[in-house]
Every structure is written in structure tokens, then in C-alpha cells.
Amino acid sequence: MTEKAMNSNNNNPKEEAVKETAETQGPNGNGKTEKEEVSEKKGEKKKKEKKDKKETKIAELETKLEELSDKHLRLQAEFDNFRRRTLKEKADLIKSGGESVLTGILPVIDDFERAIESLKDISNDDAGKQGTILIYTKFKEFLKLNNVKEIDALHQDFDVDHHEAITKIPAPEKKFKGKVVDVIQKGYILNDKVIRYAKVVVGE
């Protein structure tokens, strides 16, 4: 065997090993072929795109949830306002309806007071007088039960919030100047609201 042939046989195992390693590792030397790397990169890109889509969808859902929550709060506030307004209107209606009835009774009270005044010279044992006083008393009790109070006017300082001056006359005494010296028609208050002003004569 020649020296050249011997050298050729000695190099073959080493070259074969290098060749085998290169084939196993691929052209990039990382154990993957170029095709595999491209496929892997595509897979990673798809995963990233899928993740981005999920994050975008979550953000959209969070925004939608926030909008719905805000809308719910507004509707709740509107409903509460509507309920309060309805209750107030109902209360005002009941109150105004009651006020109308009570105001309508006042002239009847006036008539009974005039009738009782005309019966002052008649004996208290008189059945007619007793009946008139009894009915009058029941009317007064009814007004009291419904929070209707008579306005205190006689000998009080004239008050435009409760009194209506019909006329003025010279005060019989100095202490009655600017005060109510006579009451022509009684006034009444319902729950701190004047439902009829007292018609009075004021001293000056």
C-alpha cells in the first residue's frame, strides 16, 4: 500500500464524523434546519398575534363593562330621582286635597260662631243652643286632629305673614299702637302654612 493510500484511509473517519455532525445540526449549527426555524418563527408569531388579540378583546370587554356600569349608575340615579319626585307629588296631592277640604270647612265654622254669638242671651239649658255648641265643638276637634290651628291675632303685633289689615283706627290706648285691636274674621294655619289670613283692624 502506498503512503497516499494510507493517508486517505486515515482521514476518512474524521471527515465522516464532521460530515455527520453538520448534517445533524443543520446549516445553522443549532440542530434545526432552516425550514424548521421558519416554521418555529411562524408559530411564535401566531402565538403573539393570538395573545395580542386576546389582550385587545379583554381591553374591549373592560371598556364595555365600564360603559355598562356607568349607564347602570345613571339609570339608577334617574330612577331614584323619579321615585322621590313621584312620592313628593303624591304627598303634595294628598296634602293639597286635604287642604282644600279643610279650607272649605272654615266658612261653616264661621257660621257656627255667629250662631253661638246670637244665642248668648238664651239659657244654656236650651236644647237648640246645646246642639249648636256640640256640633261646633266637633268641627273644632276635627280641625285640631288635622293640624289646623287658629291664628292668635287679637292684641298681637300686626304681622303681615299671618294678618290681613282691613282697616286702621286710632288706638284706644297707646299700648295698642301697631297692634290688632279687632278681628273681623279668624285666620287658620295648616302644618305651619297659612290657609286663611286673619282679617283684622289695626290700631295706629
UniProtKB/TrEMBL annotation:
Keywords: Chaperone, Cytoplasm, Stress response. Its main location: cytoplasm. One of its GO terms (cellular component) is cytoplasm. One of its GO terms (biological process) is protein folding. Signal peptide: none annotated. SUPFAM superfamilies: Coiled-coil domain of nucleotide exchange factor GrpE (SSF58014), Head domain of nucleotide exchange factor GrpE (SSF51064). Residues 1-57 are annotated as: Disordered. Residues 13-22, 32-43 have a biased composition (Basic and acidic residues). Gene3D superfamilies: 3.90.20.20, Head domain of nucleotide exchange factor GrpE. Pfam families: GrpE. It is found in: Cytoplasm. Homodimer. Belongs to the GrpE family. This is Protein GrpE. The gene is grpE.
